[in-house]
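Q: Focus on the chain.
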Amino acid sequence: KFVYISENRNVENQNSLKIWKENKDQFLNDLSLIDDMKFWKKTIDINNENGQSFYIDIKSLIRFELVKVLISTLKDKFILVGSNWKKYYPNALDNNYSVKYIENLYRGNICIDFGSKNSEKCIYPRSCKIIESGGLLFQGINKDSKEIFKNLFDKTCFISLQDMKEKISFFLNNSDQIDNFLITQQKNFETDEFNYKTIKKVENFINNI
């Protein structure tokens, strides 16, 4: 199964919607564009106090578009959790904040993640929880993806809408490789300077703010 657990807010800001309309194809063809400062400098006044809200809005719109594709592509192989998705996808499950519930959903499944709305980094509480729970992190590209994903970058990180679809097709046709990817992922996060216990400390710190 493929699992995605998240809320997604409705975007109503007209300036954000204008940016999206003018650049939608570019965003979906290159998911790293959202973190490209050159793009933002030519698109908005980056000193404007609304700059961060535009960034968050566009991330929400990208998520919405990618989830639409996941729904149509995966059908009953896709588990979507988030009450506010129901109006678009009636089969979405209601919010459930039970740690056990979330861990059980993640464990052994391919866990889709589009990164934090507030950050350009791979590692944040949700991605930590996926790894901790024994799920395979399948994440859209972030600035530090190559460093973090290491030898799994080409397998479990997607850089565009098309790349996401192609990798999903690979997973569906090569389900026997998922366990090997999970083992490699666990080794990546248990060794080196990027120690898994350190990630957990970061997660606990953030959750207690």
Observations:
- The beta strands are 2-5, 78-81, 110-113, 136-140, 157-158.
- The chain has a mean pLDDT of 87.
- The chain is about 55% helix and 10% strand.
- The first strand starts at residue 2 and ends at 5.
